[in-house]
Amino acid sequence: MSTTALPTPATDGELADATSSDAALRRFLHGLPGVDQVGADARAAMLGTRSIKAASKEQALDLAIRMVDLTTLEGQDTPGKVRALSAKAMRPDPTDPTCPATAAVCVYGDLVAVAKDALGDSGVHVAAVATAFPSGRASMRVKLADTADAVAAGADEIDMVIDRGAFLSGRYLQVFEEIVAVRETCGPAHLKVIFETGELQTYDNVRRASWLAMMAGAHFIKTSTGKVQPAATLPVTMLLVEAVRDFRAVTGRQVGVKPAGGIRTAKDAIKYLVMVNEVAGPDWLDPDWFRFGASTLLNDLLMQRSKMRTGRYSGPDYVTMD
C-alpha cells in the first residue's frame, strides 16, 4: 500500500475546492496520511539493493545520460564555461557517436542566451533557475521578472524555488499562488518546482509540498537546489515519485520528478531508475518525466559506459572534468 495514497478518492473538483482558501488548503494537506519515516527509509534501502543484468545496465546508463540536466550554477560561471558545457551536453563522448545527448543544460538566467545559441537546434533544452534561486527570498515582482527574463532569453524550462519560510509557517495558499503566477509567466516553458527538501524538516512536509506544487500546475517537482545539505536522497525522491504516481491516479495528469544534488555515480543513478520503475512504473522512465540535476554525474556515467563497451576503464583524461 502506498505511503502517500489519499485516504479517500478525490476528484479534480475536490482538489479545486482545496485551494479555495488557506484554511481549506491546510485541511487538505494535513489530511493526507502521515509518512512512516522508518518504513520509507527501509523500503528505499531495500530498493537500493536491487541488481540488474549487464544488458539492462547498458540501457540504464544510456537512459541516465539522456535524463541529465547538466548543471553549472556558480558565481564564477562564464560564457566560455557555458559554451563548453553545452558542447559536452550535445556530444558527451566525442569518440562515440552512439552516446546519447543529455536532456538539458541548466544555468543562471543571465547565461540562457549563451546556452541557447550554443545548443542551437540540437534538441538539448535550456533550463534556467529563477525566482531568486537558491533562497527564494525576494518580492513576487522580482521573482516574476526573473522568470520572464529567462523565458524571453529562450529558456525552455524554468526551475523555481518555493518560499520555504512561507511553507514552514503554514502559509500554504501564498506558496500555491506564487507557483501559479510563475507558471503563468513561463508561457510555453515547462516549470520545475524546487522544494529544498533538506530544509523541509519532515517527510510529511515533503509529501505536502509535492501535492501543493502539483495542484498549482507544476510540470516537474524537484528535490533540491544542490546548495543545501542534505540534497537529493533515495527515500525523499521515492516520496516524490509516490506522489506523482498517486496524483496521476486522481487527476489523470502526469508530473515529472527531478532529484538534484549529491548524485555523483552511475551506481547511484541506477538505484534511482530501479526505484522509479518499482514505485511508479515504466511510464516515468523517460527524460520527459524524470531528470537528474547534476554537474559531475555525467562523467561517471561515461566512464562506466566505456567500461561496458571496452572491458576496461579509460584513463583519467577520458572525460572532461566540470
CATH class: Alpha Beta
The rounded Rg comes to: 19 Å
Describe the biggest sheet? 8 strands, parallel
The fraction of residues assigned to DSSP E strands is 5-15%
Helix content: 40-55%
Describe this structure in words.
With 322 residues, the protein is α/β, with parallel strands linked by helices. Helix content is 48%, strand content 11%. The protein contains 13 helices and eight strands. Helix 6 links the parallel strand 2 (104-108) and strand 3. It has a single domain, classed as Aldolase class I (TIM Barrel), CATH 3.20.20. Strands 7-6-5-4-3-2-1-8 form an eight-stranded parallel β-sheet.
Task: Fill in the keyword field for this structure.
322 residues; alpha/beta; TIM Barrel; eight-stranded parallel sheet; 13 helices; 8 strands; 11% strand; globular; disordered N terminus
